[in-house]
Specification:
about 400 residues; two-stranded antiparallel ribbon; 16 helices
Length: about 400
């Protein structure tokens, strides 16, 4: 039988027509892309509604993040709002494809070609997204994917056009990847057994307690963002950056982001990819039902046959809504509030102002996993008045 990591790479080669390299995480894939194609001090345009982990991965690579303006209709970068002077000073642009909503790849490709800029596709939330007849991940020479998102697997994949870069990238990856010791392999093996059992039985609370004993969780965020000390971040950058110096921030929510996955985890991930069409069908059906609530802005036009990672609903009193659903056993995640242009200290990034209406994508958005639509609607049924649109119900208005 084919090695499961090679099978995962083959899935991406077939799907995207690119060379594929399987890695422990999507964030490591992004870091390797930054190191391979860019140099320390290069300026890279990124969205301000993005994961803080991605922001610190950019800093770890020694790059200068330029936090670009948002399109209020999509929550992604608005290329038309960036002036030529800014474009000419950039070395790269990184997309977000927020919740699977495709970036304006046509405009980005045009601007990058015109100014000789590298386009990096962060497709970690966009495994089933496309613009026109091309998939996200096929517009540029390099794209990063995460397997913890759509298919709840482990690891990430870096896709790129040049076959000759594979061996150098694999060697670069080897220098960054950490191996488990014997004791840790045993502990993580027990954790996986307990997790699998919890997924199959009704004794979830007991098994969750056991899992916490072997792999206790740490509170790594205050609200929706991780705390940081500006002086520590600047010191890490002055020490030539790299993942070792930035590890405390890059590892948040995924302690094993550069640790070789257990073979059992990789095999399970391969199996989930092989069933992706069923996953895709269930996501589209869940999205259809969530959209029927009338809390998705009319300006957001995503084809019905794209399987979103999250469906963005816009609600008033969002924090109260989050607390309500968490109290009923459904925590809702992937909220990027405050936006990076408010979160990042001025010494850490440059910024371009976004329209005020775009603030809704961090302030009011309630991202719901379409695979958990039944649970979401069941909880909502007990308190139908908990959801109401914000005063500005359409962020593009």
């Amino acid at each position: 039988m084919k090695d499961p990591a090679h099978a995962i790479e083959e899935f991406f080669r077939r799907r995207y027509g690119r060379v594929a390299l399987y890695l422990p995480s999507g964030r490591l894939a992004l870091y390797l892309a930054f190191r391979e194609w860019l140099s320390a001090g290069d300026r890279i345009l990124i969205s301000s509604v993005n994961d803080d982990v991605v922001f610190f991965t950019v800093l770890a690579a020694g790059l200068v993040p330029v936090l670009g303006p948002l399109d209020p209709a999509t929550g992604n970068l608005d290329p038309s709002a960036v002036d030529d002077g800014t474009w000419s000073g950039l070395k790269a642009v990184m997309t977000t494809n927020l919740y699977g909503i495709p970036d304006r790849m046509d405009l980005l490709v045009d601007r990058c070609r015109r100014h000789g800029i590298l386009l990096i596709e962060d497709a970690c939330q966009a495994l089933d997204s496309r613009l026109g007849d091309r998939r996200i991940g096929q517009f540029s020479s390099v794209a990063a994917f995460s397997l913890t998102k759509h298919v709840d697997g482990v690891g990430g994949v870096l896709c790129f056009s040049e076959q000759g870069r594979r061996d150098p990238l694999a060697r670069r990856a080897e220098s960054e990847i950490r191996r488990r010791g014997v004791a840790r392999r045993a502990r993580d093996g027990v954790r996986l057994l307990v997790k699998d059992a919890a997924d199959r039985t009704s004794t979830r609370r007991l098994l969750a307690a056991l899992r916490h004993r072997f792999h206790p969780s740490e509170k790594e965020r205050e609200g929706h963002r991780m705390p940081y000390d500006q002086a520590q971040v600047l010191r890490a950058g002055a020490e030539r950056g790299g993942l070792d110096h930035f590890d405390r921030w890059v590892r948040v929510d995924n302690f094993n982001y550069r640790t070789s996955p257990l073979s059992r985890e990789v095999t399970k991930t391969r199996n989930q990819l092989e069933c992706f069409e069923d996953n895709r069908r269930r996501r589209m059906e869940g999205a259809r039902r969530l959209n029927s609530l009338g809390l998705t802005p009319a300006s957001l036009r995503v084809p019905a046959d794209i399987a979103l990672f999250r469906v963005p609903l816009f609600v008033s009193q969002r924090e109260k809504v989050l607390e309500y659903f968490a109290g009923h056993g459904l925590p809702l995640d992937y909220i990027y509030d405050p936006p990076l242009d408010l979160y990042a200290a001025p010494a850490l990034a440059e910024r371009i102002r976004s329209p005020e209406a775009a603030r809704a994508w961090s302030r009011d958005v309630l991202p719901v996993d379409p695979l958990r639509t039944d649970q979401f609607l069941s909880i909502l049924k007990a308190s139908p008045g908990i959801l109401s649109p914000p005063r500005e119900s359409d962020p593009s208005s």
